[in-house]
């Protein structure tokens, strides 16, 4: 690509759009040129609010815009596969918000289509590119700041999302695990540069059809055990990931968007921060750089990690909800 700035089109006017636009605006090699919604009025409203030049009342029109280089897809979970497929069929590069798809088969199909079309495709996982994430990896793997890593504990609280109507329906991507599993599963793989070799999971349902709490136990290829607990029921559970070592511990609060971490070695405690305006800017910097270089996939948030994660999510949901999963096509 001979140009210096990558032009983004946004498929949908979801609640995440303001934060996305802020991240793109902060990225020196990125700009927003169009947005589409299911109605032209809604698209125009978003375009006016965020100073986006072009508004479309259909996703097809967005995909047909020659001024759009890459389409960011933040649709509801059930719309991720179809939205990304539509864009790829129109030879558009795609940044697809997590969860990537609802099934492993869908994920494989999208990557195969992207390769066929000669397009870039990446799962939107901003945590992979945060400066704090890079520092955490350096502390754990290169500096071995906490000694040998023995175990990892993860807990997440996402109260309020159960109020979203479709959250209660697994067939459209509802459930706590669908919504948040990729955060922790991919963070572990990326930070520790390893794979997940074994896993078991349980869910609870309190008055809803989909899972509102999930407990997952993992074994990593690098030898450590990890546990993940996520809930939508309590605001009292602190969202954090803790790496436990032979000489100390490292805690990352709200690890998927954080600007800080805490390092404990012996009696010494350090609070490390990296101020940021938008947690999305680093992801857009990377995506735009990859597209400008003519790449078809990310060398950081690579297809291998996305597919490995989708295989875990798919298999567990088939264990928990076999009848509902049969309805997903």
TrEMBL record:
Q: Name one GO molecular function term.
A: oxidoreductase activity
Q: What name has this protein been given in UniProt?
A: Gfo/Idh/MocA family oxidoreductase
Q: Which InterPro entries match?
A: Gfo/Idh/MocA-like_OxRdtase_N (IPR000683), Gfo/Idh/MocA_domain (IPR050984), GFO_IDH_MocA-like_dom (IPR055170), NAD(P)-bd_dom_sf (IPR036291)
Does this entry carry the keyword 4Fe-4S?
no
Family named by the database record: Belongs to the Gfo/Idh/MocA family.
The Gfo/Idh/MocA-like oxidoreductase N-terminal domain extends over 6-124
Q: Which keywords describe this protein according to UniProt? A: Oxidoreductase
- Keyword flag Manganese: no
Q: Where is the GFO/IDH/MocA-like oxidoreductase domain?
A: 139-250
């Amino acid at each position: 690509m001979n140009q210096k700035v990558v032009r983004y089109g946004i498929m949908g006017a979801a609640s995440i759009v303001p934060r996305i636009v802020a991240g793109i605006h902060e990225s020196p090699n990125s700009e927003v040129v169009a947005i589409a919604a299911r109605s032209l009025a809604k698209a125009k409203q978003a375009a006016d609010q965020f100073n986006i030049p072009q508004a479309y009342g259909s996703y097809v029109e967005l995909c047909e815009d020659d001024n759009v280089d890459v389409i960011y897809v933040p649709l509801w979970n059930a719309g991720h596969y179809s939205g990304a497929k539509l864009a790829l069929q129109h030879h558009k590069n795609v940044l697809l918000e997590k969860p990537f798809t609802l099934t492993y088969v869908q994920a494989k199909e999208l990557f195969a289509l992207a390769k066929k079309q000669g397009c870039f495709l990446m799962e939107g996982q901003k945590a992979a590119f945060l400066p704090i994430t890079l520092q955490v990896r350096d502390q754990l793997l290169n500096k071995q700041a906490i000694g040998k890593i023995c175990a990892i504990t993860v807990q997440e609280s996402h109260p309020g999302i159960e109020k979203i109507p479709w959250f209660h329906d697994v067939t459209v991507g509802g459930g706590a695990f669908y919504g948040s599993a990729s955060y922790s599963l991919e963070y572990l793989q990326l930070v520790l540069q390893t794979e997940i070799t074994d896993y078991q999971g349980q869910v609870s349902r309190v008055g809803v059809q989909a899972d509102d709490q999930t407990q997952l136990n993992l074994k990593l290829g690098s030898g450590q055990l990890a546990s993940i607990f996520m809930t939508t029921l309590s605001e009292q559970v602190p969202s954090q990931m803790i790496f436990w070592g032979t000489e100390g511990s490292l805690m990352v609060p709200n690890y998927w968007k954080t600007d800080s971490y805490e390092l404990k070695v012996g009696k010494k405690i350090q609070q490390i921060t990296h101020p940021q305006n938008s947690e999305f800017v680093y992801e857009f910097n990377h995506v735009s750089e990859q597209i400008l270089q003519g790449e078809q996939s990310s060398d950081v948030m690579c297809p291998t990690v996305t597919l490995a994660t989708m295989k875990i999510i798919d298999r567990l949901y088939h264990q928990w909800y076999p009848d509902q999963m049969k309805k997903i096509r």
